[in-house]
Amino acid sequence: MPNSAPIDRHVADAVVTCDGDSKVHLPGAVDVSAGRIVRVGPVGGAPDVDGTVYDHGGLLMPGLINAHAHTPMTLVRGAGDGLPLQRWLTEAMWPREGRMTPEDVWWGMVLGSAEMLAAGVTTSCEMYLFEDALVDAVRATGGRLVMTPAALSVLHGDAFGSDGDRLDAIAAFHAEHHDPLGRVTVGVAPHSAYDLGVGRVADLAELSRSIDAVLHLHVAETRGESAALEAEYGRSIVQILADHDVFAGRTLMAHGVWVDAEDIDILVSTETAVAHCPVSNMKLGSGVAPVAAMLDAGVTVALGTDGPASNDTLDLWEEVKVAPLLARVNALDPTVLPAGLVLEMATREGANAVGLQNVGSLVAGMAADMIRIDLGHPSFTPVTCTDELLAHLVWAGSSRSVTDVWVQGERVVEARVVQTVDVERARAEVQNRAERLAGA
Ligand SMILES: [Zn+2]
After folding, report:
1. Calpha distance 347→333 (Å, rounded)
2. What percent of the chain is predicted at pLDDT more than 90?
3. Strand, coil or helix: 10
4. What is the Å distance from ligand 1's center to 30 Cα?
5. Which residues surround ligand 1, an ion (CB under 5 A)?
6. Is 411 helix (H, G, I), strand (E, B) or coil?
7. Cα separation of 144 and 117, whole Å?
8. Is 23 exposed, middle or buried (0-12, 13-18, 19+ CB in 10 A)?
9. Rounded Cα distance, 372 and 100, in Å
10. Domains of the chain and any CATH numbers
11. Backbone angles phi and psi of 61, in degrees to 5
12. What distance in angstroms lies between residue 218's CA and the mean position of ligand 1's atoms?
């Protein structure tokens, strides 16, 4: 097929592909045409290109995938810190969130999306209300968005629950915005069985299957949240949901902290992916997810920040470091979650978990979502083999190392500066709006 768009070449001292085999090119080149990767490989022997050749130095790798977030909660970041979970929700979070307008959510999302892009997080999977505002905000920042509109009873009663209107609204939103070749895809997000009830979650799961969309829900985050349901049914919450066909489609389960071996078998047989959020789980005192056991069993495990009020950043590099730290100290075993696997969880496995086939690795055919890492920091030295480079990324990598970010070939961060939106304006807006939401 003729391709009239020129091919640009991005050369770096290292290209980490996250292709499933931990392939690294030293040095390497990523050739990009019309936002799509057309070739990745060593520099030596590469055919000439007809576009611009950029010599970036440093390291290129895929953009990180934040598989579970409620990013507009930038507006409530830090509120109620240190309260017990139920008081944190009822006294600090829900009163503020109940006062949010779509315009508040737009600004909260702009600020959080800019924070993620600057950290090298090119995609986030969002569970939130006011989904139109999130889509508009990310179209402004240039990020990639998996928008899963939430169904939730606790804040606005049936208005955002799973009554017919909300189901119809989510289906219509999917029809309007789901675009697998663009930057926005759409799923369905029942908040949880303990909030909505099992029947309503099953209705939303059926909707997600009927439109072939990802189902995104919280399961087994805390030990006690589903105690009433588990007593009523005499089964674990994972078993209850499986009995109601909730996992029959493409499912992304956030947290999965309190799951046992039988539950993990269900995740495997239903090909349910898990968004592991270790910083949130530790901050809120929720528990330690059995990630090593899930990975051993063959579960797709991605990484998520959760909302910025329970983290309190959107910097997925923290999860990249904390996930193996927590798993290793929990297992008393330094062999679990090796560095190459953790990087795959933050990229390729994350893309799989949120239902994206076109991002997550630097290979031909993928969208050009990639980030540049400055290797000049002392903590990246020495490198005597590629395994050490991957280890440095996991243990010493951070958002501060990220200098440039491309989404679909568009450079949205250049020399650490977000190019698409006015971050200082967004900070001022979020500050003012947060004061109003706090009732201050
Ligand atoms: Zn969450």
Report:
1. 24
2. 92
3. strand
4. 35
5. 306
6. strand
7. 10
8. middle
9. 36
10. 8-62+359-418 (2.30.40.10), 64-353 (3.20.20.140)
11. -150, 170
12. 6
Q: Looking at the DSSP assignment, which residues form a beta bridge with residue 16?
A: 24
Angle at 273 (CA atoms; ends 317, 388), nearest 5 degrees: 35
Distance (angstroms) between ligand 1 centre and the Cα of 433 equals: 22
Residue 221 has pLDDT above 90, yes or no: yes
Return the CA Rg of the chain.
Answer: 21
Residue with tokens 């040095």: 27
For the stretch 60-103, pLDDT in tens is 999 999 999 999 999 999 999 989 888 998 999 989 999 999 99
pLDDT in tens, 180-199: 999 999 999 999 999 999 99
CA of 150 from ligand 1 middle (Å) equals: 11
- How much distance in Å is there from the Cα of 27 to the middle of ligand 1? 39
Q: What is the predicted pLDDT for the residue at 440?
A: 64
**Which residue in the block uniquely carries the two structure tokens 């059995």?**
290
- The pLDDT value recorded for residue 3 is 54
Considering the chain, what is the average pLDDT of its residues? 95
Dihedral pair phi/psi, residue 152, rounded to 5°: -155, 130
Q: Which residue has the tokens 């931990």?
A: 22
**CA 304 – CA 118 distance, rounded (Å):** 17
For 224-260, b/e burial (b = at least 16 CB within 10 A) is: ebbeebbeeeeebbbbbbbebebbbbbbbbbbbbbbe
Ligand 1 center–CA 282 separation, angstroms: 13
* Distance (Å) from CA 418 to ligand 1 centroid: 26
Which three-class secondary structure state does DSSP give residue 144? strand
3-class secondary-structure state, position 106: helix
- 184 pairs with which residues across the strands? 145
In contact, 111 and 124? CB cutoff 8 Å:
no
How far is ligand 1, taken at its centre, from the CA of residue 16, in Å?
Answer: 30
> Global pTM?
0.97
Residue type, 41: G
385 alpha carbon – ligand 1 mean position (Å): 38
DSSP 88: I
| Contact between 125 and 215 (Cβ < 8 Å) | no
Residue 234 CA to ligand 1 centre (angstroms): 26
Centre of ligand 1 from the C-alpha of residue 244, in Å = 22
Three-state secondary-structure class, residue 318: helix
Compute the distance from residue 424 Cα to the ligand 1 centre, in Å. 27
Chain CA centroid to CA 285, Å: 21
DSSP string, 255-296: E--S--HHHHHHHHHTT-EEEE-HHHHHHTT-----HHHHHH
